Amino acid sequence: MRSETRRAHSFAVRSRRCRGPSRDALERHFARERFVTVLQTERLLLRLVERERDAEFLRQLLNEPPFIRFVADRGVRSVADAAAYIADKIEPSYAEFGFGFYVVELKESGEPVGMCGLVKRETLDDVDIGYSFLERFWGRGYAYEAAAAVLGYGCEVLGLPRVVALTAADNVSSIRLIEKLGLRYTRTVQLPGYVSESRVYT
């Protein structure tokens, strides 16, 4: 992975749906684009996850009570566990698809506040948008700001034909965010490794 930073894509916050070329085309395009800072918004920077730099942050995030409740307990208890999780679950997506989860940082301080990105699951045809933020940063609009930027990036830069979103049926704040992005509920699925069924929004 190259470590230099090129010009990040900048997106205003607005909801949108995807229209564009096939996923094969976006994979060929983005496979050539390896840089740390991927996106920026008015208040946030989104960058690639780095194993040594971000392991402690990821350990904290994956052990937040809302993450365990609405997603799953990933069993990440130590920094070493988190580094292994990055190596096994996050980095392969960059290599295979050219996209994945990104660390969301505050522009002013560089403090990591959450993660947001694009996921291609074996069990779903579409790419979906995922996000999780430290609870102490909730209520400030960061999740929506990051998610809107990632959705725009997937549609307008990567050319994804469609990006969907998934969330637990009782995750009211996540449902509100997804609907604010302009996505609507279509069906319910059971994903491997998740505590409960997930609602799919397209």
Concise account of the structure shown:
This protein has helices at residues 23-30, 51-62, 65-70, 79-97, 142-157, 172-180; strands at residues 9-10, 37-40, 44-48, 101-106, 112-120, 127-133, 163-168, 185-189, 198-201. α2 crosses α4. The chain is α+β, with helices and mostly antiparallel strands.
Characterize the structure shown.
Helices cover 35% and strands 24% of the residues. It has a 9-stranded mixed sheet with strand order 1-2-3-4-5-6-7-9-8, with helices on both faces. The chain is of the alpha+beta class. Strand 8 and strand 9 form a beta hairpin. The N terminus is likely disordered. It is globular and about 40 Å long. Helix 2 crosses helix 4. The chain has 6 helices and 9 strands, in the order βαββαααβββαβαββ. The chain has a single domain, classed as Gcn5-related N-acetyltransferase (GNAT) (Aminopeptidase, 3-Layer(aba) Sandwich). The longest helix has 19 residues.
Please state the CA-atom Rg, rounded to the nearest Å. Answer: 16 Å
Fourth-tier CATH superfamily name: Gcn5-related N-acetyltransferase (GNAT)
Q: Roughly what fraction of the amino acids lie in strands?
A: 15-25%
Arrangement of strands in the largest sheet: 1-2-3-4-5-6-7-9-8
CATH class descriptor name: Alpha Beta
The low-confidence parts are 1-6, 20-35
User: Which structural class should the secondary elements be placed in?
Assistant: alpha+beta
**Element-level helix/strand string:** EHEEHHHEEEHEHEE
Q: What gross morphology would you assign?
A: globular
Q: What composes the largest sheet?
A: 9 strands, mixed
Mean pLDDT: 87
Distance between the termini: 32 Å
In DSSP terms (H or I, runs of 4 or more residues), the helix count works out at: 6
> The CATH topology is what?
Aminopeptidase
Strands, total number: 9
Per CATH, which architecture? Answer: 3-Layer(aba) Sandwich
- Structural domain count: 1
Question: How much helix, percentage-wise, in residues?
Answer: 25-40%
